[in-house]
């Protein structure tokens, strides 16, 4: 039975990657464009920590969505979420349910998972790997 489930694990990983990326991108669009609604504190200045975070969330989220450069981008985004949690959530309370940091923790560890597993099925990285290296440094 588990052998049958194991066969589908790359696809389940891809579904997790896609859903996490879409949710992550929504945080970026909220901070950059006020969509689907503006953030509670208002629109952040573009060259602030929140503005830079919004760009990472939108662009990095898109790269994760399509599975391009998944491991290095996931490493960067996991770090962003760790910083977000410890700088903005943890000082309010040590309990994630009270400080609003649940999503930051989950995103951090989901992205860390992608650092170690790669993107799963249906990814640009997988298509590039199938095509083989085009340059000596891609081997």
From TrEMBL:
The keyword Nucleotidyltransferase does not apply. GO terms for cellular component: plasma membrane. InterPro entries: DoxX (IPR032808), DoxX-like_oxidoreductase (IPR051907). It is a multi-pass membrane protein. Keywords: Cell membrane, Membrane, Transmembrane, Transmembrane helix. It comes from Microvirga lotononidis. Belongs to the DoxX family. The keyword Membrane applies. The chain crosses the membrane at residues 44-66, 73-91, 103-124. PANTHER family: BLL4328 PROTEIN, OXIDOREDUCTASE CATD-RELATED. This is Putative membrane protein. It is found in: Cell membrane. It comes from the Bacteria.
């Amino acid at each position: 039975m588990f052998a049958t489930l194991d066969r589908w694990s790359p696809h389940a990983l891809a579904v997790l990657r896609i859903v996490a990326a879409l949710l992550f991108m929504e945080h970026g669009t909220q901070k950059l464009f006020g969509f689907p609604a503006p953030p509670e504190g208002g629109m952040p200045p573009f060259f602030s920590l929140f503005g830079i975070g919004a760009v990472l969330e939108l662009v990095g989220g898109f790269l994760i969505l399509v599975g391009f450069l998944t491991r290095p981008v996931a490493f960067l985004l996991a770090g962003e979420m760790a910083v977000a949690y410890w700088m903005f959530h943890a000082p309010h309370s040590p309990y994630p349910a009270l400080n609003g940091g649940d999503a930051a923790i989950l995103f951090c560890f989901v992205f860390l998972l992608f650092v170690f597993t790669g993107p799963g099925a249906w990814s640009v990285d997988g298509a590039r790997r199938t095509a083989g290296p085009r340059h000596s440094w891609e081997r």
